[in-house]
From TrEMBL:
This is Steroid C26-monooxygenase. GO terms for molecular function: cholest-4-en-3-one 26-monooxygenase activity; heme binding; iron ion binding; steroid hydroxylase activity. InterPro entries: Cyt_P450, Cyt_P450_B, Cyt_P450_CS, Cyt_P450_sf. Belongs to the cytochrome P450 family. It comes from Mycolicibacterium diernhoferi. Keywords: Cholesterol metabolism, Heme, Iron, Lipid degradation, Lipid metabolism, Metal-binding, Monooxygenase, Oxidoreductase, Steroid metabolism, Sterol metabolism. Signal peptide: none annotated. Pfam families: p450 (PF00067). Its cofactor is heme.
Amino acid sequence: MSTPTIHRHSSEHGRVLAEPVAYTDNDRLHSSLAWLRANQPVTWVDVPPYRPFWAVTKHADIMAIERDNELWLSEPRPLLLQAEVEDRVKADQEAGVGLRTLIHMDDPHHRDIRKIGVDWFRPKAMRDLKVRVDELAKRYVDRMAEIGPECDFVTEVAINFPLYVILSLLGLPEEDFPRMLKLTQEMFGGEDAEHQRGEGGTEDIMAVLLDFFTYFSALTASRRANPTDDLASAIANGRINGELMSDMDTLSYYVIVASAGHDTTKDAISGGLCALVEHPDQLARLKAHPDLMGTAVEEMIRWSTPVKEFMRTATRDTEVRGVPIPKGESVLLSYVSANRDEDIFENPFTFDVARDPNKHLSFGYGVHFCLGAALARMELNSLFTELVPRLESIELAGVPEYSATTFVGGLKHLPIRYSLR
Ligand code: HEM
């Protein structure tokens, strides 16, 4: 069989996917992604300091790729990183000192590791946690009432509430809150100057990882000595084929839960509130019909799309939408684009709290489907169920500011003026 010719069609529009700052400007980002979906849905992006990749912008193609987890692997390139950081991460992993979390792994190891935490995210565990989540939601809405009539909703509410929820699920003490907050922001906001440690260079990124390791190594030792009824103990004492997980798998598990469960939810909460403020008719509708909260939460998660992308690498020559992709090359799955795909969503650029169906890909798809999706949904539900009926008025008190990142991000400041019952 003859090898198909590889046409690496690229376009200026594809550059947005490799430009952290493009994610701070929704109009520019979405107009480029709409162009790509219509004209070049599989496009070649070659923008240093990143290694080149294929960007996939159609919802159906992303689902097909995520469904076929034998053809498309997370290893060795699960997400977009600068080439230098990618090399360093790989070298550290090979030396046994680098983070290797669920998102980096493929089956069967991925399946074994995922099993260890999965019970803590099932409906029963969610029901047990709901009382605590509702209590925290009330605490933060009360706080808004106290500090009003103005606040930065991101720094006062959206950052703190999900972190407290995660710390509760893990079973960590509240006094560790400031430390975990700083570390997760440094880890995920690494490309944004406001959150990064130092100059944001490789050394700084590695120092952040080391701090995570130090904290969680101590936690593992203590939960192995004195197991308690929480996710941290399940992780510390998790076994595969009768053997305790390796130190690196254990540490990586804490890191993925603490980090993936925090910034993502913060972005959905603040993006959700911003959407309600910018669409007062939808806020009024939700107030009048509290039974729409379920669909409203899904729409907030679609609208904000906190996780911008993940990547997969082809294990053999293949093609996507007729575009040949050679073995070993990587595709970037643009969830941001999929969630505005005109072929899937009616009026995708309309924020509609009653949207149903809403087949958004904010939580991904397939074997890596977000482990914490039910928890994230519950958190948004608790917070907005507490907040919306108490809101007498709300408006922007400044310009919402977005973080510059190609991975996990959203609003970093949302100044609001409000009155609350
Ligand atoms: C609105 C909030 C959230 C969003 C948008 C989100 C999004 C995602 C996405 C896109 C993935 C990758 C899916 C894929 O590759 O197909 C993922 C994986 C994951 N998420 Fe979430 N997430 C959120 C909240 C949470 C929470 C609250 C937790 C837990 C505490 C969590 C834990 C995880 C874990 C552990 C994985 C890795 C799963 C695996 O690779 O098997 N996430 N999430």
